[in-house]
Amino acid sequence: MIVAQDPTLQDFGNDPWWLVLIKVVFVFAFGMVCTLLGVWFERRVVARMAVRPGLNQAGPFGLLQTLADGLKGAFKEDIMPRTADKVVFFFAPTIAVICAMTTLSVIPFGPMVSVFGHQTPLQVTDIPVAVLLILACSGMAVYGIVLGGWASGSTYPLLGGLRSSAQMISYEVSMGLSLVAVFMLSGTMSTSQIVAAQKSGQEFEIFGATVSAPGWYAILLAPSFIIFFIAIIGETHRPPLDLPEAESELVAGYMTEYSSLKFLLFMLSEYVSMVAMSAATATLFLGGWRAPAPITTIWAGANSGWWPLLWFFIKVVLLVFAFVWLRATLPRPRYDQFMRFGWRILLPINLVWIMSLAGIQVLRNADITDTQRYSIIAGAILAVLLLALLWPTRKQPPAPTLEQQASNRPPGSFPLPPMDLQVPPSPRARRAVAEREPANVGAGSGADLADKES
Predict the structure, then answer these.
(1) Region Disordered: what ranges (predicted)?
(2) Which of 172, 213, 368, 453 has its CA 20 to 30 A from that of 29?
(3) At what angle do helices 222-235 and 307-329 cross, to 10 degrees?
């Protein structure tokens, strides 16, 4: 039986310089190629969901359309606003791209493999706190957006940058808390060790019973997985949560004053961030480069050699498809609704889930009987139910009527618009009704005239 060799932290830092250079070039090429294919993939999938023709002109299946768009964007005029801070305006897009690319450096693409006779892990590097590096790069990427919006010297870019910073603060908290459950179950913050901890068939004890774990933390920690995925959509500013660049409100948000290559860099950072966060999700919750259980049951060597690269790429593509699916399905919420959802819904649910998981971990290690464990769990559930039933509800005051609203208007203000949403009849309909019933012209309301016409 062929068993994949899981890398350890001691396996990193021993590669020759040329092998490290090959890994860095591979990660950079992976990010760039995934960006080019991601734009094509997104436009094809959205077109398919909207039942309309997609990219089908440049190259087979429109594969060269992204390359043509990049060349067209590179040759456009590079505009610099007069009021812009030129240095910050120039370097802001590069900050976003560098932070997105750095995230891929700690993502494990596979197990130990042989490259020109050298045994090396398919990962650029790994550290004991690699997940914190992913969070740091995700938080630092917003600096490029905020600085780009501020340096533009315009109102709409500044509002987009401020929205982005507030959105990052709100959803970075939920994203970080959702990873606490992963740390508690795996016992490490190293990405390679988290992948190793998700081996299918691992056994652990719950309340005295031995349970075989399914492996993926997306199953064991389903609430954390759902919250993390929602948070990364908000972190990467992907539709329908692209509020820092909402075209219906801010023209193009923080990118309004950008053009040519600098605009393309912002687009590149968005798609690289989407791919990097998809790779991080696959690593932390979907077993990383490990094949699903049915494949490993049939094929013993599925997790050895270079095959794990295929399983990892398939997981990333499926997560990118989920990003695109959400874009094509859900409408954009209001900014206040989105912020309220993060602070009032995701954060409390995450805190309750982490506390419950911590309680379960304590009960697993406590030296008490099973009867006492079950009694504690039943008491906790009963307390939550009583709290939910006895929680005071604030009654909403009744909505004021139209007469009350009209009487409360300050003097000199404009009249209230009609609230019944009934469209008055057209002049032609009024003339037709006047010709038939000249005595009743002006006696009825617009709705009455429309009813008489019909």
Answers:
(1) 398-454
(2) 172
(3) 70
The per-residue pLDDT for range 392-434, each reduced to its tens digit, is 766 777 777 767 777 777 777 766 565 555 556 667 767 777 7
DSSP per position, 139-201: HHHHHHHHHHHHHTTSHHHHHHHHHHHHHHHHHHHHHHHHHHHHHHHHS---HHHHHHTT-TT
Q: Report the C-alpha gap between 279 and 169 in whole angstroms.
A: 22
In this structure, what token pair is assigned to residue 114? 């042989």
What pLDDT, on a 0 to 100 scale, did the predictor assign at position 318? 92
Q: Are 282 and 216 in contact (CB under 8 A)?
A: no
Query: 174: pLDDT confidence band, cut at 50, 70 and 90?
Result: confident
CA–CA separation, 74 vs 68, rounded Å?
10
Of residues 145, 149, 148, 165, the one with CA closest to residue 157: 149
pLDDT of 85-119, one tens digit each? Answer: 878 888 888 888 888 888 888 899 888 888 888 88
Cβ contact 233:241 at 8 Å: yes
Question: Phi/psi at 279 (nearest 5 deg)?
Answer: -65, -40
Indicate yes or no: pTM above 0.85.
Answer: no
Peptide bond into 240 cis (omega under 30): yes
Alpha helices (H) along 187-289: 191-196, 217-220, 222-235, 247-250, 260-285
In this prediction, residue 281 carries a pLDDT of 92
Question: What mean pLDDT do residues 152-163 have?
Answer: 80
Buried b (16+ CB within 10 A) or exposed e, 69-97: bbeeeeeeeeeebeebeeeebeebbebbb
Instruction: Give residue limits of the domains in the chain.
Output: 80-384
How many angstroms separate the CA atoms of 272 and 31, rounded? 6
